[in-house]
Write a structure and sequence with these properties.
Elements lengths: L1 E8 L3 H8 L2 H7 L3 E8 L2 E10 L2 E15 L3 E9 L5 E12 L7 E12 L7 H27 L3 H5 L8 H8 L15
Antiparallel strand pairs: 1-7, 2-3, 3-4, 4-5, 5-6, 6-7
Helix pairs in contact: 2-3
Length: about 190
């Protein structure tokens, strides 16, 4: 299985880097994860529950980081055993960079190459790919929510002040120039 993607994050590159290297943040954001613990230099012990089609399993394994270029990129390798459900192993590259348009936040690019075996491998590629995409989407939803709880909404969302709510008739009347006008128009001419 191969998967690649790009996400725009509403936090700075350094904030994203720190979060992507924090075991507690990853534990909160990875769907089904109940353990993500540092066990050695750049090595983590991981435990998570996965459901792919009719197969549910509790996986335990390890994640190792390599080629670390803080705060820009790293590669990670992973392997996990899910008992009779099978195994998963593979590698991923993660890179962060400032957004191209010069706006706030950063962009995250990732690639994943994985192999699965056992009952999971019998599910069929379409089901496995769908589950992987769904898991990645769920991770990024959780990650975005975690970043907003820490740092507030992304700057573009914070800049969008809620517009004054106006009823349909009042809005139509304002467009016609009748009713409430801007403060500069309400000043007495003299």
């Amino acid at each position: 299985m191969e998967m690649l993607g790009n996400r725009r994050l509403g936090v700075t590159q350094q904030q994203a880097w720190d979060a992507l290297n924090d075991p507690e943040t990853l534990k909160k954001c990875i769907p089904g994860c109940d353990r993500f613990e540092l066990t050695g230099e750049n090595e983590y012990s991981v435990g998570l529950a996965l459901k792919i089609g009719p197969v549910s399993a509790k996986f335990s394994g390890k994640v190792t980081l390599a080629d670390i270029l803080a705060p820009d990129s790293y590669r990670l390798s992973f392997e996990g055993q899910g008992g009779v459900a099978g195994f998963a192993k593979g590698a991923s590259s993660v890179s962060l960079k400032p957004v191209v348009d010069g706006g706030e936040g950063c962009e995250l690019d990732y690639t994943v190459q994985a192999q699965v075996g056992g009952k999971i491998a019998q599910m069929g590629q379409r089901l496995i790919d769908g589950a992987a995409k769904s898991t990645a989407d769920d991770f990024f939803k959780r990650f975005d929510a975690e970043m907003q709880s820490r740092y507030g909404p992304p700057p573009e969302a914070a800049d969008e002040a809620p517009a004054e709510k106006v009823g349909a008739v009042a809005g139509f009347m304002q467009k016609l120039g009748i009713g409430k006008k801007a403060d500069t128009d309400n000043k007495d001419p003299g």
